[in-house]
UniProtKB/TrEMBL annotation:
Domain AMP-binding enzyme C-terminal: 547-618
Protein name as catalogued: Acetoacetyl-CoA synthetase
PANTHER family: ACETOACETYL-COA SYNTHETASE
One of the record's GO molecular function terms: acetoacetate-CoA ligase activity
Organism: Ktedonospora formicarum
InterPro entries, A to Z: Acac_CoA_synth (IPR005914), ACAS_N (IPR032387), AMP-bd_C (IPR025110), AMP-bd_C_sf (IPR045851), AMP-binding_CS (IPR020845), AMP-dep_synth/lig_dom (IPR000873), ANL_N_sf (IPR042099)
Keywords: ATP-binding, Ligase, Nucleotide-binding
Length: 667
């Protein structure tokens, strides 16, 4: 697979940056305390994945994990699934948050479309979490019970989660922009006892009343004994519809002050439940443990992302994306977490950049799709806003194109560390990403994350170097799912990750590991185009197509036809006023032919109004392919899991034509 990545780095860390890096401090500590010396970041990674027990036990000591009982074994056995970590240890995630309480810096800074900048002190955060935990206990919530939040990215959501964690209860959340059925599909599986919800929210300048949805949720979730309502849209506890007459107002949750107490739970006690996207079936409820997430997030944020106590840490996310959970993890090391609720494009594309300037943000986390939108809109963050405090920009969600890398250094900040990362909800962390010790190359993720034994496999399970293959994990990680809820025999769990390579986690991405230890992600392997034996990642095509000035977005799909034929149409979203004529089609095809190869030229190009996407912004490549293969829309995609379900109508109709072609009834 041909690539066009520059050989010269866009950024290199200075000696001062390297010396001040958290991971450098950790390596010095290893040398002093353990007699282990590593000259390079790559050597440290090799040790972290070959000596798993020594690596993770060193982190336990380095981060001074508080445990009411000592562990007897670091790792029971190097098997997947079935590995058990730190047996015998008892701890509490929330306790590790509040040991970092500061009197001089805020715990949370928050802004939304409806609220000016709000600061929440550590004292206020601890006081309110204690009151909420007490109120939940009074409701009968105990360790292991599920509490769910139908909530946006606001301080109250963080408070409710931490209160649950302190009790040993299990948290799960959905963003209020999820469709009603989508929320029910998720929450009903885990039988929550308390529902905490908002009355409504604002997005893009428009208000959305959600009180009727809350009533539907209560009706559909018979396990819920208490419903708590936060007056987020109205700003006050106003009159409620009859079906919500017995609801608990949020003010009642804060009425009784109580000191925070921390239920000591086993290392593998459930902390929260996340969900797969649900685009192709019932979302999988992914259960992750208190101890595994605690260690993984400390490792990832401190050693991989170089986050420090007192840093101001932001990721643009909703509560329905794992990045919200990672963002809250910043509190574990005493960082100030920055929350934003609203559209990144309201009132204009400068909204988040103004937020960065106003909060003196140090780490700005976002998605590759947002960076692409900024590029298309022509916004100039570096020229318009004071970003002098910003030292790192994180990008995830999908592969960031080389042009995206270039844009950041040309239009945001030339001395910025750009950390493109890739991981998954499945481990609530990154597999490959950034290191402040290494140079940044356009289109590349700098390295594999510590403790994550990432390899590229061919179809036979052979490890590849400098070749595109399946992204696999060949050694267990503490934050891997404990189990899927209601999957007692681990059938769905095994099918999801271990069906292709027994005992090896297949993640579903195409990856190439370069000789220098960096990585390139080429998109989802289960949507990969295999044309005439040539395997193609969709992101490589998008990179070229979406650089055409007349285009805003695109979707590529490949499907096997009868008689060994292969059909690969390209769908494009045009800028206003642009017509998809023969000249523009020729331009697109010529660019693909010259930039990549003739194999990457589509059979046809069609104009569409919008690309269908999941709620987390991923393009619906796999469900569209399933539609083209004749699978009914209700089985190919869950409409409630989509950000723009109306966009599917075009493809449902188009699929009829594809079916005729597949069956050979049309030319």
């Amino acid at each position: 697979m041909q690539t066009l990545f520059d050989s010269q780095p866009l950024w290199e860390p200075s000696d001062a940056v390297k010396q001040q890096a958290n991971v450098t401090h950790y390596m010095r500590w290893l040398a002093e305390k353990k007699g282990l010396r590593f000259e390079t970041r790559e050597a440290l990674w090799e040790w972290s994945v070959s000596e798993l027990e020594d690596f993770w036990s060193s982190l336990w000591e380095y981060f001074r994990i508080q445990s009411s009982s000592s562990y007897t074994t670091v790792l029971s056995e190097r098997v997947m699934p079935g590995a058990h970590w730190f047996s015998g240890a008892r701890l509490n995630y929330a306790e590790h948050v509040f040991r970092n309480a500061s009197e001089t810096r805020p715990a949370i800074l928050f802004r939304s479309e409806r609220h000016e900048l709000v600061s929440v002190s550590w004292v206020e955060l601890e006081r309110k979490v204690g009151a909420i935990a007490h109120a939940l206990s009074e409701m009968g919530v105990k360790s292991g019970d599920r509490v769910v939040g139908y909530l946006p990215n606001i301080p109250e959501t963080v408070m409710a989660f931490l209160a649950c964690a302190s009790l040993g209860a299990v948290w799960s959340s959905c963003s209020p922009d999820f469709g009603t059925n989508s929320v029910i599909d998720r929450f009903k599986q885990i039988e929550p006892v308390v529902l905490i919800a908002i009355d409504g929210y604002q997005y893009g300048g428009k208000s959305f009343d959600r009180r009727s949805v809350v009533a539907e949720l209560r009706h559909a979730l018979p396990s819920v004994r208490h419903t708590v309502l936060i007056p987020y849209l109205s700003g006050e506890e106003s009159a409620l519809p009859e079906e919500l007459a017995d609801i608990v107002p949020w003010s009642d949750m804060l009425r009784m002050p109580a000191p925070l107490q921390y239920e000591q739970v086993p290392f593998e006690h459930p902390l929260w439940i996340l969900y797969s996207s649900g685009t192709t079936g019932l979302p999988k409820p992914i259960v992750q443990g208190q101890g595994g997430i605690l260690l993984e997030h400390l490792k990832g944020l401190v050693l991989d992302m170089d986050l420090k106590a007192g840093d101001r840490f932001f990721w643009f996310t909703t509560t329905g994306w794992m990045m919200w959970n990672l963002l809250v993890g910043g509190l574990l090391l005493g960082a100030t977490v920055l929350l934003y609720d609203g559209s990144p494009a309201y009132p204009d594309m400068g909204a988040l950049w103004r937020f960065a300037a106003d909060t003196h943000m140090n780490l700005f986390g976002t998605s590759a799709a947002y960076i692409s939108s900024c590029m298309k809109s022509g916004v100039e963050p570096g020229a318009l806003y004071d970003l002098s405090h910003l030292h790192c920009l994180g990008s995830t969600g999908s592969p960031l194109s080389p042009e995206g890398f270039q844009w950041v250094y040309e239009h945001v900040k030339s001395d910025l560390w750009l950390a493109s990362i890739s991981g998954g909800t499945d481990v609530c962390s990154a597999f490959v990403g950034g290191s402040v010790l290494l140079p940044v190359y356009a289109g590349e993720l700098q390295c594999r994350m510590l403790g994550a034994k990432i390899e590229s496999y061919d179809e036979e399970g052979h490890s590849l170097m400098d070749e595109v293959g399946e992204l696999v994990i060949t050694a267990p990680m503490p934050s891997m799912p404990l189990f899927f809820w209601n999957d007692s025999e681990h059938v769905r769990y095994r099918e999801s990750y271990f069906a292709t390579y027994p005992g090896v986690w297949r993640h579903g991405d195409w990856i190439k590991v370069t000789p220098r230890g960096s990585a390139i992600i080429y998109g989802r392997s289960d949507s990969t185009i295999n044309r005439q034996g040539i395997r193609m990642g969709s992101s490589e095509i998008y990179r070229v197509v979406e650089a055409v000035p007349e285009l805003l977005d695109s979707l590529i799909v490949g499907v096997e036809m009868s008689g060994g034929r292969y059909y690969m149409p390209l769908f494009v979203v045009l800028r206003e006023g642009v017509i998809l004529d023969d000249s523009l089609k020729a331009t697109i095809k010529n660019r693909l032919r010259s930039a990549i190869s003739p194999h990457h030229v589509p059979d046809e190009i069609h104009a569409i109004a919008e690309v269908p996407r999941t709620l987390s912004g991923k393009k619906l490549e796999v469900p569209i392919k399933k539609l083209f293969m004749g699978i009914p829309v209700e089985k190919a995609a869950s409409l409630d899991a989509l950000a723009n379900p109306q966009a599917l109508r075009y493809f449902v109709n188009f699929a009829r034509t594809v079916q005729e072609r597949r069956e050979g009834t049309t030319a």
